[in-house]
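Hey L., structure's done. Input below.
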Amino acid sequence: MTRLVFDPWIPLAMWMPLALAAAALLCGYAIASRRRLVRGLRPMILTLMAVEVVIPLILLLNPTWVREIPPPAGKPLLTLLVDRSSSMATPDGPNKEPRLDVARNAVKSIENELRSRFDVEIKTFAETPAESSTDALKSQSADGDISDLALAVTSSLADRPRGQAIWILSDGVHNAPGGINRLRQAAEQARTMAVPIYTSSIGGATGVRDLEVALPVPQEMAFVGQAVTVPVIVHQRGQVSDRAQVRLLMNDEVVDERQVGLTPDTSSEVSFKIQQPKTGLFRYEVIVAAVPNEVTDLNNRASLVLRVIDEPVRVLLLEGKPYWDTKFLVRTLALDPSIELHSVVRMTSERYLVRKIARPESASTNQAGSNPPAVVQPTSQDDSETGDSANSIAKPRDDAWEVSKGEQHWLDDPQQLGKFQVVILGRNAESFVTDGALTELKKWLRQGDGSLVCFRGPPTSQISNRLGELLPVRWSQQNESRFQIQFTSAGQSLRWLSQSEGESTLSKLPSLARTALPERPKPLAIVLASDSSARTSSDHESTPVITFQPYGGGRVVVVEGAGMWRWAMLPPGQQDDDQVYGELWRSMMRWLVANVGLLPMQRASLKADKTAFGVMEQATATLLVRDARDFGEIPQVWLRPANGDPLIIRTLPSRDDPHQFRADFGKLPEGRYLAMLDGARSDEVAASTAFDVIGNLRERLDVAARPDLMQLLADGSGGSVISGQKPDELLYNFEQHLSASQPQRLQQTIAWDRWWVLTGLLIVWGLNWSIRRRGGLV
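Output:
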């Protein structure tokens, strides 16, 4: 249907006077020219002149022909997405039927009604979407390992001229990589394409019954003969049992076994102690015995990778004055067979007491060999505070004393400094921390060769700007005060103390003293322990006690408070807590050394980024080499599955560090894997790593419906939530969307776009000119 409308180029208030003026001029010309024009030509000339005036006036009114454009052929597209992931097998429907059955019944009951008005497309999804139908849905089961709502939406978007909508029938569980951000992006993409998403949530806040075992620290490093505490967390979902049997295995043989009490929906902790007398890479397994009514037993085991090395940790301790704290710290570190200690105490301005405590000779004679049986030490109150193994006490150490005169330049000489992995600064260390020493110290830290520990607060009475750049906190002076120590959540995750109860004993230990109050930590600093009582007036946060921050490739740690030596000399009633002091410092030393890229005697270090990857994750590892030429221009890594042929993987060099490479193994099937650097010797333990690839258990364990995520998809795309799988509500909302998103389309053609309008006007002008010329008027 076509109609004519007018949309004047100029306001009618201007057009009307213009039309009247044109009519008046035409009438005046007709009167004035009645004697000049030939009688027979006069009417024709006046008529043509009137037409010449009227046509422009009409064109100023902008006559426009409007034609309605018919809509595109076909029906709107409605895509039904049915979730078939494992969580849809949960039987919490209205009649205790599985969630997938609820979705199937909804599709079956409304499909015929929808097909009469829409082109209906049915898809199922879990990891990826797939075409389906009503008949195919009958035979499909809820067995998908991953629920990827975002991919299901984005892969179903179509450029449909008549419009499209998506209806999702799901419990809303989304556990694919990318999390909620990918859902938001999918909803925004659907809104951009004018595709509303309508959602129907199926299921409720249902839980499962399950036991899960986890290792807070799945990768450990230890020295030959050093006992390592392995904490194990057993988490119970729902009520499965009131106790569980936890076993520690190596090479499928049980080496220790514990029993742990359980309460519903909480975690319990138990710990083992392990040690190895020889170097090597050892893989342990922690297993919780399966119990009836568990949803799955795949998470009843966890792997621990223990890397045992035979290279000493070289520690340099610098103290400005003799202190009891220093004496007891030296005693504690000296009793650790994995530490080679150099302590320097400034007695006077020109006298320094230098003490070197080397490892026992037997510690360096152990050679790598076949995996020996594990040596397990039970966790008990009889463990000695002075060492991790009986062998460390029985064998004497090389202890040399020397009194040196003149200034000591331990930190100024890069070759001397490069021999150590940890530098501990006590108080009054001005004579050690010179400008040259700070230059070399910063270079040493930046290259990732070691860590700096400031023991008992600020190392100097006045912190210079250059020294302050290294430290994670700044201090303000105050009167002496005392405080108790407690671990923060970040400190608890490091598991420096063997048992969770050990952390609570910190509040029972003697208080520490300080005369300098640490202020707010720097942005990159992490507080591992804090004051359990005092709070700052500025931010109402606990005052930091143990703080660290990365500096280049190294770490800088500050330990606040004097008087910690009293923790090693407790009264008879607290002697059971004597081990806390030694265990804290030994754990800190091992944590610092584990951060070191390469120990002095190592040529390469290969570490998996995780000990357990999911089947949908990229398995990766980091390789550090001292000299890449030892292993070829581009080092290669052998990947050996437990059952299968080994593969060779080329590493990728880092852009920032010529000594660092990345090994990307890709997505791997479930199983156990061992990776080794090609060209490494058999005794180079650091050049190998181990990891597991496991299936995705979140889909089976986290089965509670997520209506909030379904609401997010609906709101973000311009759709709505359909309550109770009601098709009438869906149809009404979709038609309202189509009316708003596809308004009536019109085609407009103005008079100037008509060829015959301009042609007719030219003809009238030409005819009028020729007639006037014949009459002698031109």
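Confidence is low (pLDDT under 50) at residues 362-394, 535-540. Residues 632 and 679 are 9 Å apart (CA to CA).

-- N.
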